[in-house]
Design goal:
The complex is a heterodimer. By secondary structure, chain A is mainly alpha-helical. Chain A has one domain (3-295): ABC transporter involved in vitamin B12 uptake, BtuC, CATH 1.10.3470. Chain A has twelve helices and no strands. Chain A is globular, with a radius of gyration of 20 Å. Chain A starts with 7 loop residues before the first helix and ends in a 19-residue tail after the last helix. In chain A, 51% of the residues are buried. Chain B is mostly helical. Chain B has helices spanning 12-36, 41-49, 51-54, 56-85, 93-109, 119-145, 149-169, 205-223, 225-235, 237-242, 247-271, 285-295, 300-323, 328-345, 347-350; strands spanning 2-6, 196-198, 203-204, 351-355. Chain B has a two-stranded antiparallel ribbon. A two-stranded antiparallel ribbon of chain B has the order 2-3. Chain B is 70% helix and 4% strand. Chain B has 15 helices and four strands. Chain B has a single domain (38-326), classed as ABC transporter involved in vitamin B12 uptake, BtuC (Orthogonal Bundle). The chains are: A mainly alpha, B mainly alpha. Chains A and B meet through helix 3, helix 4, helix 10 and helix 12 of A and helix 6, helix 7, helix 12 and helix 14 of B.
Chain lengths: 309, 361
């Protein structure tokens, strides 16, 4: 194995790119779960966003329009989830699974004519002299603008959740929906908004995969990224700053194993490919063993809300 | 205004009617989807649901396929439904199906080319054990470390898929296959063949196993203490705790059983319809079985009907993509839609719709 072929600056750079879809999707799911809703359909919304964004970007030649379309696609699919779970009081676990199964089918249907096409390139953000810094320039300051948008969103979501009245309202709904309802908060409306936001973020993450990270459309290309995003939220103990840490950690594992594959590691390719999933499981185990889940998870997470009065 | 009012007891009539209503709604929505794809919706629906069974041109091939495709779905869904009833979410049946096939095939191929009657039963046992062991991972992680079984069981599917790829090009590869990936053909080796018991019916040992599993699951749920515990834990977890139900034992039992059944489905598939272990051996039965379990209302008898219906959509979908050019993925979307409608109309089972006009509630 030849490790000298691995350039540290390139590893950090590809780590940031690999982590961005996970970060976007996990941030969205964080907001949804903070509102007390468990949406297991992240994978389905991500892949729907991936094809919506890809198709629109190819048709219009504009990646920003593609990202917008991906948000719309993910949000539209999440609205199906919202109507089913909030209005028709369906089981959240089952509905989330349905969303993933449906999204996978829908996306490969929509993507029929888009296999093997190259999407228009997403513009690099010009950071002036920063990009010329010796190591950091190549590793951190020469990415496309979505990477910095995702970092900005992390800060914004952290701020809104912990420092604003809106965040307090959202958390109140997630911690105890009956008490929030008694206080006059519109539980269902707030959850609708949170679910829609989560869907848009998952769609954005999916589009980042198909437009920047890969960049191509293939069936089932999310390959479990949505599930890893769900695991990152647990890993992060439902905190935005730790979501960032988690996403970059998992992105790092992915990049590391890809680099080991390229460097001709003695381990067979298949075992390297499964390592991100195995490590996700191990991290989940460590996190859930260390403390009781009840202390960190929103108290109303996954429970149906039916206002009787 | 319209308001939902919880029924004191779930409505029995609606419990039976909702799956039918959901199928009807899916047909309408699916027809619209096919129309949007530029296909005549009536022709599409007829090709999917009527032609495989009754069109003399296709029925000869399609009818036996019904049992071939329904058997793994029913086998897996029966196990999953027990867990779902107790609130234990094994959604990694696809992985347990793969590992079952790998373990079973491995056990058989280790004895190649012996000519022994015992090899096939041995492979079946190894397949069930493999699926059981793979499901034990999320079960033990849940009972020992309180790790969410939904995420672990699902993530293990990706691990299993990579193991499958590694085995198909490595340990299980056919040494006489000229370097191509894939194992020896198990359906052509006398000792491992999963024979069609009645010619031209598709009735193989997997179908027999599915029937036995359905009957045993029915007896378990209706007559056995464990079945009572499963239903109690799902409907009233706190009451179950007071009644002495051990949640850990329930998790180990439900995950283990559903894993073993998924493993069985895997090895019957590998020795029969699929014939060998290849990189793309798994075709999503483990995920479709989730829809089957819900469509069958988590009831063994319902699951049989739902499994047959879902098998029909697979066969009809293939036919429709062959004759009408409907993309194969449309069927997957169609199946997902069915689950949506099912969950949506289920509200009628548990709630009554009250309407007030003008007057204050």
């Amino acid at each position: 194995m030849d490790l000298s072929s691995i350039s540290p600056a390139l590893v950090v750079a590809s780590l940031m790119v690999a982590s961005t879809p996970l970060l976007l999707a996990a941030l969205g799911e964080l907001v949804v779960e903070k509102a007390g809703v468990l949406n297991l359909g992240v994978e389905g919304m991500m892949i729907t966003g991936a094809i919506c964004g890809f198709a629109i970007a190819v048709e219009t030649g504009s990646p920003p329009l593609g990202f917008l379309a991906a948000m719309a696609g993910g949000a539209a699919l999440s609205m199906v989830f919202a109507v089913l779970t909030l209005v028709l009081l369906a089981n959240q676990v089952a509905t989330g699974l349905a969303l993933t199964l449906f999204g996978l089918g829908l996306s490969s249907m929509l993507g029929q004519g888009y296999v093997g096409i190259k999407p228009p390139a997403t513009a690099r953000l010009d950071l002036g002299p920063l990009s010329d810094l010796p190591f950091l320039g190549r590793a951190v300051f020469s990415h496309d603008w979505m990477v910095y948008v995702s970092l900005g969103l992390t800060v914004a979501i952290w701020y809104v959740l912990t420092r604003t009245r809106a965040g307090l309202t959202l958390r109140a709904v997630g911690e105890n929906h009956d008490a929030a309802h008694a206080l006059g908060l519109k539980v269902v409306a707030i959850r609708f908004a949170a679910i829609g936001f989560g869907g848009a973020m998952a769609g954005l993450g999916g589009a980042y995969l198909s437009l920047v990270r890969v960049p191509q459309w293939t069936e089932g290309m999310t390959a479990g990224a949505g599930w890893i995003a769900l695991a990152i939220v647990v890993f992060a103990s439902w905190r935005a700053d730790r979501v960032l840490l988690g996403a970059y950690l998992f992105g790092g594992v992915t990049v590391l194993q890809l680099n080991l594959q390229a460097a001709g590691s003695a381990l067979p390719v298949e075992y390297l490919s499964m390592s991100p999933y195995v490590i996700t499981i191990l991290v989940l185990v460590i996190m859930s063993a260390r403390r009781s889940r009840a202390t960190a998870a929103p108290a109303s997470l996954g429970k149906p809300f039916h206002a009787t009065a | 205004m319209t308001l939902l009012e919880k029924r004191p007891q779930p409505s029995r009539a609606w419990a039976w009617a909702t799956p039918l209503l959901a199928v009807a709604l899916t047909l309408v929505a699916g027809g619209l989807m096919f129309a949007a794809l530029g296909t005549d919706p009536i022709a599409a629906i007829r090709t999917i649901f009527y032609d495989p069974l009754f069109n003399p041109l296709f029925a000869g091939y399609s009818r036996p396929q019904l049992l071939v495709k329904a058997a793994p779905l029913i086998l897996i869904a029966t196990g999953l439904a027990l867990g779902f009833r107790a609130g234990i979410w094994n959604i990694g049946a696809e992985g347990q199906y793969i590992i079952g096939a790998l373990c079973g095939a491995g056990a058989g191929l280790a004895l190649y080319p012996l000519d022994l009657r015992l090899i096939f039963p041995l492979m079946v046992v190894a397949g069930a054990a493999g699926g059981w062991a793979w499901a034990m991972i999320p079960a033990i992680l849940r009972t020992r470390f309180n790790t969410n079984e939904i995420l672990t069981s699902l993530l293990l599917v990706y691990v299993a898929e990579n193991l499958l790829a590694s085995m198909a090009v490595g340990a299980l590869r056919n040494p006489d296959g000229g370097g191509f990936p894939g194992s020896r053909n198990l359906s052509q080796w006398g000792s491992s063949r999963n024979v069609e018991l009645i010619p031209d019916t598709g009735l193989h040992w997997g179908v027999v196993a599915a029937m036995i599993a359905v009957i045993l699951a029915y007896v378990l749920l209706q007559r056995h203490l464990m079945g009572h515990h499963i239903r109690l834990a799902g409907q009233a977890p706190r009451a179950a705790r007071f009644a002495g139900v051990n949640p850990s034992r329930l998790i180990v039992f439900c995950l283990g059983l559903s894993g073993a059944l998924a493993g069985l489905a895997g090895i019957f598939e590998a020795t029969g319809p699929a014939g060998q272990i290849t990189i793309n051996f798994n075709v999503g039965y483990g995920f479709t079985a989730i829809i089957v379990a819900f469509l069958g209302r988590l009831h063994p008898v319902g699951i049989v009907l739902a499994g047959l219906l879902m098998a029909l959509t697979y066969i009809g979908g293939e036919l429709a993509s062959f004759t009408l050019g409907i993309p194969a993925a449309a069927i997957q979307a169609f199946q997902g839609m069915l689950l949506f409608f099912l969950l949506a109309v289920d509200v009628l089972t548990n709630y009554r719709i009250r309407t007030w006009k003008g007057a204050s509630a």
